[in-house]
Amino acid sequence: MTYELAIGDKTYSSWSLRGWLLFTKFNHDVRIHNARMYTDEFKRLIAQFAPTKLVPAAKLDGAVLWDSLAIAEELNQRHPDANMWPSNPAARAYARSMTAEMHAGFGPLRSDCTMNLRKCYPDFKPSEQVLADVARINELWSHARREFGADGPWLFGQYSIADVFYAPVATRFATYDLPRSETADTYINTHLTDQKFRMWRAMGIAQNYVQPGYDLDLPNVEWPGPKPLVAKAIETGTPENSNCPYSGDPVTHFLEIDGRIFGFCNAFCRDKTIADPEAWTNFIKIYQN
Questions:
Q1: What residue numbers bound the domain in which 61 lies?
Q2: Of 33, 62, 81, which residue sits at a domain end?
């Protein structure tokens, strides 16, 4: 099988996050094509996945899909053993319904609270329309967790397509400090602490694509997810490793953490590690050695 996925900015593109999670969380091998939104590079990327005009877009053995729900269903059909939907019929029906509601609805939340993984605004004042969306989402999450979530921390216990679609929603609650129940707060934290999500956010920070119009003119506080280990880039040094923990190539770029020096094959490998060292299994292996 040959799978390819086109995505945009990791910090801001909520649908790109969904597309990436559909492959990554369910261990489907995929080649990622990434371009910065609102650029000619992005237009050229999208042209390779015609007739799409948006991301995510995928090629599954050459067949083009350009809608996240279509990608989810096609992957589910191709990989029945991946358990992408809950196996219990009642849970599966609820999961499909709330996923479809997310896919088609919550316009005020999408419009007023765009995904922004760089910021947290404790003084954001949501409109009545956004609060109505928030109340509905709290209701959906609470029902799923109460009725179907006994065997794990996700909406239906084990991770499913429903969690993929609500991952960017969880980040919106975090960014804009939206009201939530205790159940919802626990569920949001499950996303923020998930290793795959932490990898995605760290890569977005390393990309450093700061798009005009996404940041609000409001006080900003520290991101509410796990506090990363403190690391910094350095120009030279003697690293503990001679090969990049990700590519295996000789090291050329360096970071310092706790007085120790580690090397990487390029600036991006270094910078994504600086953003959140504990998100990266290959790095933590050498750090804890």
A1: 3-81
A2: 81
Residue 47 burial (10 A CB sphere; 0-12, 13-18, 19+): exposed
Split at pLDDT 50, 70, 90, the class of 1 is: confident
Q: State yes or no: pLDDT of 289 exceeds 90.
A: no
Say how many Å lie between the first and final Cα of the chain, rounded: 36
Q: Per-residue pLDDT tens for 111-140? A: 999 999 999 999 999 999 999 999 999 999
Phi, psi of 226 (to 5 degrees): -55, 140
pTM over the 0.85 mark? yes
Residues 94, 18 within the same domain: no
Q: Is 33 exposed, middle or buried (0-12, 13-18, 19+ CB in 10 A)?
A: middle
DSSP-derived secondary structure letter, 113: S
- What is the b/e burial string over 150-160, where b = at least 16 CB atoms within 10 angstroms of the residue's CB? eeebbbbbbbb
Select from 25, 53, 81 the last residue of a domain: 81
The answer to whether residue 141 is domain-embedded is yes
